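Appendix C: a fully annotated inverse folding record. The material below is reproduced so that readers can follow the format used throughout the book. The structure is listed first as tokens, followed by the designed sequence.
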């Protein structure tokens, strides 16, 4: 199978760290959408603000619009809590049924 015949219809891709339009997280979101996957992504802009490349304030909204233009379901949730709280939350059982 090559990347051109990858069919992800009916699947959900979860991408962490999609805050900037030029970032690798947003690129993965677009790639999954091109192959038919619905996409849930989490931007974390407080991290980007402290990096040399800086943040992209409109990045998450632009990424969401790109995904919706690809005719897939898309949603995001931004983290605003400290990393320690996020790590604890990531160890809780979660079931993802669908994006709506």
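Designed amino acids, in order:
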């Amino acid at each position: 199978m090559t990347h051109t015949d990858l069919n992800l219809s009916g699947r959900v891709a979860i991408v962490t760290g999609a805050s900037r339009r030029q970032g690798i997280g947003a690129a993965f979101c677009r790639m999954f959408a091109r192959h038919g996957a619905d996409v849930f992504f989490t931007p974390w802009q407080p991290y980007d603000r402290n990096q040399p490349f800086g943040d992209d304030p409109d990045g998450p909204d632009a990424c969401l619009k790109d995904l919706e233009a690809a005719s897939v379901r898309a949603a995001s949730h931004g983290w605003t809590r400290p990393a320690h709280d996020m790590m604890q939350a990531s160890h809780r059982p979660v079931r993802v049924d669908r994006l709506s």
